[in-house]
Amino acid sequence: MAAQGAFALGKSSPDLFRRRVLWIALAVMAVFTLSYLSHQRHEDLQTANPLAVSPAHESEKVEEVGEGEDMEQMEQLETMEPEPTWTFVTGRDDMNYGLTDEQCDIAFPLLYQELDRARDHLVELNRTIKERDVHVDRKGSYDGRTHGEFQCMIHDGEVSQLLLSAFPFSYSNFTTTLTDLQQLYVIKEVHGEPDRSRGLAALANMYRAISSMGDARRLIPNVEFTFDIEDIAMEGEHNKERIRWTWARPKENPWLWPMPDFDGWSYPDDGVASYVQFREDVAELETNFTRGWYDKPQQLSWRGSFAQNGDLRRALVKAASGKSWSDVKPIDWHDRKDLMNMQDFCKFQYVAHTEGNSWSGRLRYLHICDSVPIIHKLNYNAHYYPLLIASGPNQNYVEVNRNFSDLVPKMEELLADPERARAIAAESTRVFRDRYLTPAAEACYWRRMFRTWRSVMDFEPKTYYIHKDGTRKRRGVSWERFSFRQEKSFEHGFFVEDKIKDEEPE
Ligand SMILES: *[C@@H]1O[C@H](CO)[C@@H](O)[C@H](O)[C@H]1NC(C)=O
Ligand SMILES: *[C@@H]1O[C@H](CO)[C@@H](O)[C@H](O)[C@H]1NC(C)=O
Ligand SMILES: *[C@@H]1O[C@H](CO)[C@@H](O)[C@H](O)[C@H]1NC(C)=O
Ligand SMILES: *[C@@H]1O[C@H](CO)[C@@H](O)[C@H](O)[C@H]1NC(C)=O
């Protein structure tokens, strides 16, 4: 609020000196906030248990960090750090897209592991993100099908340019600016595989995460990035070190930055509707089981097509065939026989998950069920998969081999020990449905993604490009306009071609 007030004052005053003083005040506040946040982030990394979100654990963490560190500095940090007066309450906060950075840290301390990993990978190599890293693929840089790609920018327009000219030296060290001015732009779209609606869903999610920030105290940096909407984002690419935002990454590819997949907006099928509506539908369905999990049939549910990852999926169907605990069936999208609505998986005590072309977005839906997830060893990581725990007191799923050779003994073990199975389901709903997969958590992840990306970005995004004759043209199309674009519009009573072109000079 204070920052916003200062900004307005500075603008209305013609006195340049006074304006500069205000900018300095603003800059000092930005540094202070940044250093506070970076301390917070380092602490997140110290926590081993994803469930340790209580204030008691916070103080333990500080002691751990203190070993071998400058104790004086640690004491300072401790006294500077306010006691968390706020805690995340499911049912009150899970739909809040606009939690502050501090609230995001308190509520979801272990959400950002994939982002920290991606950043650390670059830092270890003394590598930064250059303009060429965010340029969409050039012809000849890949084989096979063209991937759908979106090159995007989040920018506060002229404000940072003004700051830059007022304080060229010191400002270049700051990576954040006022949020409530931030705009989302699409610089370039490459039409390719698969359907572009997935990209539009990601953009809508980002837009929501940005526009939910109600006041200037919350910070989102200027960033430029490219995301690839292909399931297998590195397929056909020649450059093994290609950096992209993707739905998921093979565990052995450290260059990709997992973003929340498009399912966080909506699964592209009317049977599921939007993610938020799906959560509501499941909540309603669960009320039918008056004794909760115990009232559900002691069976494992799965449906899927062999068109993707056929060998793996056939192994599941084979392992489960003829078992009284099995409701596992393949489907064929041509006749749609044996189809099951997504929410109906939740009517079983056990839900099986299989990867698809690469990762499968279905897991986040299964994680909304009060059921025990049975998951084969995964080759891909989506943004929240570091939170999966396969053993110990905080076990939240049951892991089986990729050939499902151990499915039968593991199912028999669970069926013989319902208390243990029930505890795994309860842990799954607590960690995923009620915390790390809430819409609130996802908005926090997006904003942290912008910030973590910016921390290794080595250029300032440009809002204009300059033609040879010196005239300048705005880069990109603002999301508000882009989301309405179509080949032809009928706005004025007759069809008009869309004249907006993404092309920019090389
Ligand atoms: C890191 O990269 C920068 C810029 O390329 C270079 O100037 C610097 O010497 C490098 N540092 C190390 C430790 O390699
Ligand atoms: C800004 O960064 C430069 C180079 O990294 C450094 O030498 C300088 O001290 C920094 N300035 C401030 C005000 O932190
Ligand atoms: C709950 O049970 C009632 C009665 O059997 C049924 O009509 C209704 O469709 C069920 N609701 C859901 C969401 O499954
Ligand atoms: C199934 O996978 C496990 C673990 O990778 C392996 O040890 C086992 O030999 C495999 N079984 C068959 C029948 O391939």
UniProtKB/TrEMBL annotation:
Biased composition (Acidic residues): 65-81
Keywords: Membrane, Transmembrane, Transmembrane helix
Ranges for domain Glycosyl transferase CAP10: 219-453
Membrane-spanning residues: 21-39
Pfam entry (one): Glyco_transf_90
Transmembrane helix among keywords: yes
Residue segments, region Disordered: 48-84
Protein name: Glycosyl transferase CAP10 domain-containing protein
